[in-house]
Amino acid sequence: MQYTAREISTVLNGTIEGNENAIVTKLSKIEEADGNSLVFISNSKYECFANSVTAGALLVNKTLQVSNPNIGAVIRVEDPYSSLGKLLAIVSNSEEKKNGLETQTYIGKNTTYGSNLYMGAFSYLGDNVRIGNNVKIYPNCFIGDNVTIGDNTTLYAGVKIYRDCVLGSDVIIQAGAVIGADGFGFAPQKDGTYQKIQHIGNVCIGDNVEVGANTCIDRAVMGSTNIKSGVKLDNLIHIAHNVEIGENTVIAAQVGVSGSTKLGKQVMIGGQAGIIGHITIADGVKINAQSGVSKAITKQSKSLTGSPAVDFMEHYRNLAQTKKIPDLLARIEQLEKKLNEKG
Questions:
Q1: For the sheet containing 250-251, what is the strand order?
Q2: CATH code of the domain covering residue 51
Q3: Per-residue pLDDT for 315 more than 80?
Q4: Residues 250, 274: one domain?
């Protein structure tokens, strides 16, 4: 890559202070930057480096004060983090893209695909698969019968899409993810064994969804497990059968969502949280890392933490009271001692 500060500022609708012709050839972290780097600061924790870092260009907000002779140009934008995302997308799209069908791939009967398909070696397309335009399927992927995949979707190496599942457009599935495996459904029998419950539904994923590496989304018993448009799932998440996740919800790593639970729009869930089955979580709810949600959350935009999860303020009031327990026990022992002495 090679851009001038002016070109970057124009793309990002920013303003420039300093040398408009400063050349940037790479994007760098603060600690690795040099005179050819573009560096960004969006977190106030790192603002102290603005006056010490060496960089060809520094991407910052509208108000951060910068006085640093080792920076070629300062580019000011409303939101540095979002602007960096836009710039990274441009750089990524300028890289050479893979195209065509590599050797040792398999395409089943009545399967169709649009223009500009890339299909990596040892990948498999089942029968009656429908694939849109500009789809990228990296090596060792499996796509079962009757699957539909929308335009501009990317499946990285080793992704497995079971039969009948539907993926929208502009979806990214990271390596090793499994979409549409059977859910965990077993009926206890009188003899102590378990009868498997067959899952005849599917998984439906909307547009602009990203699914992280080794995340698993189970197919429905009947109907669909639904991941609505704009959802972002981190690595190592388990979404159980018949779950519904509303638009633009984001979930961090190692979260488990049990069967038939419905998450609203724009829910945010921290890592390692667990949510029981057959409940509803309202729009905009925020669930802290390692929380355990054991009942429905009906109030929108509520913030929860702890296990069982409760309102943030209630949780911290309880913690404050808990810290007083040793002193209270000591006082009780003293009172008991005095009473025994009087008795």
A1: 100-101, 118-119, 136-137, 154-155, 172-173, 210-211, 232-233, 250-251, 268-269, 286-287, 303-305, 310-311
A2: 3.40.1390.10
A3: no
A4: yes
Which residues are CB-contacts of 181 (< 8 A; sequence separation ≥ 6)? 160, 162, 216, 218, 219
Q: Measuring CA to CA, how many Å separate 6 from each of 24, 29, 51, 54, 78?
A: 10, 21, 21, 18, 17
pLDDT of residue 89: 86
User: Catalytic residues, which ones?
Assistant: 241
Sign of torsion, CA 171 176 177 182? positive
> CA angle at residue 182 from 173 to 286, to 5 degrees?
55
Cβ contacts of 52 within 8 Å, gap of 6 or more: 68, 70
Q: Which domain holds residue 22?
A: 3-94
pTM higher than 0.70: yes
Amino acid present at 292: G
Distance from C-alpha of 143 to C-alpha of 166, rounded to nearest angstrom: 11
CA dist 125 and 150 (Å) reads: 15
Q: Indicate whether 153 and 278 sit together in one domain.
A: yes
- The answer on 169 and 118 residing in a single domain is yes
Bridge partners of 302, per DSSP, are none
Reduced to 3 states (helix: H, G, I; strand: E, B; else coil), residue 201 is coil
| Count of domains observed in the chain | 2
Confidence band for 162, pLDDT divided at 50, 70 and 90 = very high
Within the chain, residue ranges assigned H as helices are 5-12, 80-94, 312-323, 325-342
CB atoms within 10 A of CB 170: 17
Q: Model confidence over 269-282: pLDDT tens digits?
A: 999 999 999 999 99
Find out whether 272 and 254 touch, Cβ atoms under 8 Å: yes
Q: Is residue 322 part of a domain?
A: no
Q: What is the pLDDT of residues 276-304, one digit of tens each?
A: 999 999 999 999 999 999 999 999 999 99
